[in-house]
Design brief:
Elements lengths: L9 H14 L2 H7 L4 H10 L17 H14 L1 H14 L1 H5 L2 H14 L3 E4 L7 E5 L3 E8 L10 E8 L5 E7 L5 E3 L16 E9 L19 H30 L16 H34 L5 H33 L11 H11 L4 H14 L10
Parallel strand pairs: 1-4, 2-4
Antiparallel strand pairs: 2-3, 3-7, 4-5, 6-7
């Protein structure tokens, strides 16, 4: 079947093996929520946490396109685990973009040696965590929302607001730091194992050396605005992998379990012209979303490789295919995960089958950054030639 990974790539071969392991109990774990501890350990044991770390620092030195194809494979079976793996990558690489080369190298080497799983406490829209400088260190109090992966993390990319200057500060700290706690209070109907709830801070100490050093006097240099590109690429590959997984699972059900409708005039469900048309349409849309996503992977690899030489014009040009792929993947995933029920039948709504999890997970995740604004950005660029202005969530 289409949507198969390139198994000549050893990392994608590992991803497929893990995907099939995750699929065995994905339905039960989705219902239970909580922590995907066994899956977390399996990813650790695979070595894939080091995938994007440069080889000179102990990693595999793979581009974003490889890591995001791993996300896509995981999402076919379990979008929560895919989400955590993808955001591990964006949090791990934050220092490479936001701090000095020396500091980034130290964090890469330590992460590779410790096999750290990273999580995000850096939500750009939340100013609910503040810090005060106290001589030779920072003290943080408050909370952070949408802290995906924190309930299983080893290390954290965090941001807070300086109480005196109002400036946003970035740093990296271990998840065992005194006063920090993942509340594990995520209560959405989707992405139930992502731990995307709240983290609290009570007099959390951050050492001066843990704060990201500014690379230049220009805080919004184009290269420093690439983390949102990575986060959006994670999301679009979660959307796409979920759509692919839902379509393949529905196909198997229709072939093996669905019964023809009484008025269809056919003996086999798959011979119904309506069923054939719906599957043909959903497959075509998913195929198109896959092509756009693959194009976006190449774009991200190119702008990331440009490093500090990246220009504002190059950054702006790259924003368009990434936004288009994200919007189209989200809309496609919503349509696929909803419409499959029309051609699988009433019995496919069984809780035991768990087909609903695909829709619940996509619906939850697409609300994180609504498609409407991505599509407007693309449309405005098409009309005027003006790229979107970089922001913390673009």
């Amino acid at each position: 079947m289409t949507f198969q990974a390139d198994l000549s790539n050893p990392f994608l071969r590992q991803a497929v093996e893990l995907r099939d392991l995750f699929a065995r109990d994905a339905i039960e774990r989705d219902k239970a929520g909580g922590k995907p501890l066994e899956q977390y350990q399996q990813i650790k044991d695979s070595g894939l946490l080091r995938l994007g770390i440069p080889a000179q620092h102990g990693g595999a030195g793979q581009p974003w396109s490889t890591a995001l194809r791993v996300v896509r494979e995981f999402a076919q079976a379990d979008s929560s685990v895919a989400h955590l793996f993808g955001y591990h990558g964006s949090s791990l690489h934050s220092a490479h973009v936001l701090s000095s080369p020396q500091q980034a190298a130290q964090l890469y080497a330590a992460s590779a040696e410790g096999n750290w799983f990273w999580a995000n406490n850096s939500n750009a829209g939340a100013r609910s965590l503040t810090g005060r400088w106290q001589g030779d260190h920072w003290v943080l109090n408050g909370s952070k929302p949408y802290t995906s992966g924190s309930h299983v993390a080893d290390h954290l990319h965090i941001t807070w607001v300086d109480e005196d200057s109002g400036e946003t500060i970035d740093a990296a700290i271990p998840a065992g730091r005194a006063g920090w706690k993942a509340l594990d209070d995520w209560d959405a109907f989707g992405q139930r194992q992502t731990g995307s709830g709240t983290c609290s801070y009570e007099n959390v100490r951050v050492e001066a050396g843990e704060v990201y050093e500014r690379r230049s006097a220009t805080p919004r240099a184009p290269y420093r605005t690439l983390i949102p590109f990575v986060q959006q690429s994670v999301l679009l590959n979660v959307f796409l992998g979920t759509a692919q997984g839902a379509l393949l699972r529905a196909r198997a059900y229709s072939l093996n379990d669905s019964r023809p409708w009484v008025h269809s005039g056919v003996e086999r469900h798959v011979d119904d012209p309506w069923v054939k048309r719906v599957y043909g349409d959903l497959y075509t849309r998913t195929l198109a979303a896959t092509a756009l996503a693959d194009q976006a992977l190449g774009v991200l690899d190119r702008v990331w490789a440009r490093g500090e030489a990246l220009t504002a014009a190059e950054r702006g040009e790259a924003a368009i295919p990434l936004a288009a792929a994200n919007a189209f993947a989200g809309n496609t995933a919503l349509e696929v995960t909803s419409k499959i029920f029309e051609v699988t039948g009433t019995r496919s709504t069984s809780n035991e089958l768990g087909l609903d999890r695909f829709w619940r997970n996509v619906r939850t995740h697409t609300l994180h950054n609504p498609e409407e604004y991505k599509t407007r950005n693309v449309g405005y660029w098409f009309l005027t030639g003006e790229p979107p202005v970089p922001s913390g969530i673009q």
